[in-house]
Amino acid sequence: MADGALEILGSRVDAVDMEEAQSRIARLLAARRFAQVVTFGSEMAMLARRDRAYREVVNAADLVVPDTIGVIYAARLLGRPLRERVAGIELLERLCAACARDGTRVFLLGGEPGVAERAGAELAKRHPGLSIAGSHDGYFGQEHDAQVIERIMTSGARLVVVALGFPKQELWIRRNAGALGEVVCIGVGGSLDVISGRSKRAPEVMRRLGLEWLYRLFREPRRLGRQLALPQFAVLVAGQALRERVLKQRTFRSV
């Protein structure tokens, strides 16, 4: 386990706030090597708990940020409170602002045809000077990975934003790590849909109250099956907290 990190149901989460996450990604870009950033949520934790291969991908990432309010609550319950939620879409905006200042080129991958292109235009408008090196939709099979990677590499991009949804985006990044070269890849779920205007994010007041999940469920009732995993997540984290507390007490008594 890396310094400053905690474990939630077997998955590593780095104890970073927004500023530290941005700073660490800047250092990864400066290192000029491949790196993977995971924006980690409670649904991902549930999948990683039962899927060893996915868990290994998460734990091997260079940076794992706490993306959802469920992860924040889990850390608090485990006695390792995090400073703040690092929402992927907000981190992306900050990274684009920094890239606009220093000239780092950005590639957008994911969404339905046209979504990444529209998101790129919107990001360039919000962050004058931002260079969107290229874009590609997320509707391609593994047999076309090489073509997509070639497009990324020839674009000159250093930051690759991958919006394929979990677990596909994390698995795609790790599978192609050797071919992607000196880039930093970050998975951002549905962020490009929001930025492009295809979907709406929860109002700020609901985000502050930790109710973004409820807003998304209201707008997308088909997510109900996925959201049912959240109560189970809470129960499992509580069980982890209890086990750790008992183990700590036993260790203290044996000293």
Overall outline = globular
What structural class is derived from the secondary structure elements? alpha/beta
Element-level helix/strand string: EEHEHHEHHEHEHEHHEHHHHH
Q: Please identify the oligomeric state.
A: single chain
**In percent, how much strand structure appears in the residues?**
15-25%
How many strands, which pairing sense, and closed or not: the largest β-sheet?
Answer: 6 strands, parallel
Count of helical stretches: 14
N-to-C CA distance: 24 Å
How do the strands of the widest beta sheet line up side by side? 4-3-8-7-5-6
Q: Quick check: average pLDDT?
A: 91
Helix share, percent: 40-55%
Give an account of the 3D structure.
It contains 14 helices and eight strands. It has helices spanning 18-31, 42-50, 52-60, 69-77, 88-102, 115-126, 145-155, 168-175, 177-180, 191-196, 204-208, 212-219, 224-227, 229-254, and strands at residues 5-8, 11-14, 35-40, 63-66, 105-110, 131-136, 159-163, 184-187. β5, α6 and β6 form a beta-alpha-beta unit. α2 (42-50) packs across α3 (52-60). The protein is globular, with a radius of gyration of 19 Å.
Task: Label this structure with key terms.
255 residues, 8 strands, alpha/beta
List the helices and strands and how they pair.
Blueprint: E1 5-8, E2 11-14, H1 18-31, E3 35-40, H2 42-50, H3 52-60, E4 63-66, H4 69-77, H5 88-102, E5 105-110, H6 115-126, E6 131-136, H7 145-155, E7 159-163, H8 168-175, H9 177-180, E8 184-187, H10 191-196, H11 204-208, H12 212-219, H13 224-227, H14 229-254
Parallel strand pairs: 3-4, 3-8, 5-6, 5-7, 7-8
Antiparallel strand pairs: 1-2
Helix pairs in contact: 2-3
